[in-house]
User: Fold this.
Amino acid sequence: MLYETFPADRRLFESRSFLSGLGNRVAKHKINDEKALEYFLHNSVEHPVRTIMDELKNYHAERLTAAAITQTYHNMIEGGLEYGLLTTGEAIVFLRIDWAESETLLYHLAEPTAEVQAYPDHAHLWTAVGQYLAFSLMAVGLPGQRKLHGQDERRDVMKNLKTWLEDIETTLRSLPDGKW
Assistant:
């Protein structure tokens, strides 16, 4: 999993021999003053470390997002729901399960603040309230068109789904303290 997150073709230091060569090149240059030291530290240490930390933060964010969506999907299957959502307060992920292909989770990412700014002439449609209302109407559906998914159907679907090996609580506990 680590190599998927930090693939070899995206590494700043390709190999141990590269680092050794870098060390040899640096050893040949004298650091006579503070400016040369600052330049060396910035290019050889600070920039690569900052890049690695940014990638690590993205990795943790992707894990948390995957865990949250997976948990919501699981709850939707268990409850026999066609529609569900999760929100961060700034973004809303609207979810839908097509029970004919229940292994596929359909989604729509909404960012109401940005969408209202992008479409000021129809801002009321893009507000969080407007999007929640539209989603709720879709979820309720027309009378006579709603299909309930019984326990047998839910159990059959769950048997055919792959299992996520960790829940969101496990993911949260695995993250560095104070970072989330």
About this structure: The longest strand covers residues 92-97. The two ends are 21 Å apart (CA to CA). Residues 129 and 173 are 33 Å apart (CA to CA). The chain has eight helices and three strands.
